[in-house]
Amino acid sequence: MIYWKYVDLDNWETICSKLNAWVDTTDFLQKQFFWNTVSVPQLFEAAPELKPALEKFGAKCVYGAIIVAKPHGGKHYDNIHVDDMFDVAARLQLPLRNTEGSYTYFYSARKDKIERKLLPNGHAFWWVDPKNAKEETRVCIDRPTIIRSGEPHAVCCNPDIKDFRITATLRLVPDAARWLT
Questions:
Q1: Running along the chain, 181 residues long, what does each successive block of 10 average in pLDDT?
Q2: 3-state SS, residue 3
Q3: Other CB atoms closer than 10 Å to residue 44's CB: what's the count?
């Protein structure tokens, strides 16, 4: 199985820079929620280059979120999860801040050993017991990356960076899994 793939997206550095600046105008960092749903029009307003870049890529964005991962000393085994979107196999991740040296780990795990939980803001996810997970691969989200979000994975922040690791995650139509070949 291919769990991730770097992809070419026009103007990605400009897009990421503008989205990163926009994050500072929100309350995401004050709330410190891991998962922050945003409207697609907000994303396009913050980074007007995003919509045409996705169109050229052959995709339409139908959902977006800003992921704010707190530094946690390089641990990742206690936050293995599957996103609560089983109808979505993969999403596009964009690096916004402090992604250097941080990794997203992917695991194989028995699906019957996954437990549904809620984040403090009410967003659901599926927790995976580390004892039932086997690491398969990892990727540094330092450029546009398609990740298989429907499989067990975990974020591991760079232990040398004491600030949030921030990415944007986009649900695309067609499903981003089509590019994982």
A1: 95 98 94 89 98 96 92 63 73 95 88 71 71 91 93 85 91 93 83
A2: coil
A3: 16
- AA identity, residue 78: D
Residues forming beta bridges with residue 154, ordered by sequence position = 105
Distance CA(62)–CA(56), nearest Å, equals 16
Q: List the one residue out of 81, 83, 87 whose CA is nearest residue 62.
A: 87
Confidence (pTM)? 0.88
Of 15, 55, 2, 35, the closest CA to residue 144 belongs to 15
Q: Can you give the pLDDT at residue 75?
A: 56
- Three-class SS of 119-170: CCCCCEEEEECHHHEEEEEEECCCCCEEECCCCCEEEECCCCCCCCEEEEEE
Q: How far apart are CA 39 and CA 95, in angstroms?
A: 18
Residue 142 has a pLDDT of: 97
The CA–CA distances, whole Å, from 176 to 10, 15, 119, 154 equal: 16, 19, 25, 19
- Per-residue pLDDT at 123: 66
